[in-house]
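Supplementary notes for students who missed Thursday's class. We covered one full example, reproduced here. Read the sequence, then the structure, then the short commentary at the end.
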Amino acid sequence: MPSNTTGSLSATGSVTLAKSNRAKDATFQISGTYGTVTFVFESSADGTNYAPTNALLQTTGANTTGTVSPADNATLSYKVVCPNVQWVRLRVTAIASGTVAVSATSDDLSTATTTPDPVVHAADAAIVTKEGLVLLTKGSAAAMTL
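Structure (token representation):
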């Protein structure tokens, strides 16, 4: 199932999304009535040590790493590609007025279908399996037709 979280920030703070290890990215929706704010997307493998991470602004495809200074009251959507971490956060600094509303969701790879067990093929003969993994286990030269 996808992970999701929401938060409303009226001062310096952050909204953190704990995602599945299998999820490869997260989407952050940012809105509100706010003025004079900066934010940065960060990721962490351990939930303690965070580092800036890339984020793509969905409307333009612009890539950012580091501090973003949006226009006052901007409604934005960012995709954060983060396949090897479990936590992603949006850290907001210095809201002059109002609040920043944040909604974050990870993709849902945890419901992906599992790989079927491999088919073992150990003798000279045609391999009739059409999909999946076939293990060839004959101990000598083999005459197997695909």
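Commentary. DSSP finds no helices and 14 strands in the chain. The mean pLDDT is 82. If anything here is unclear, bring it to office hours.
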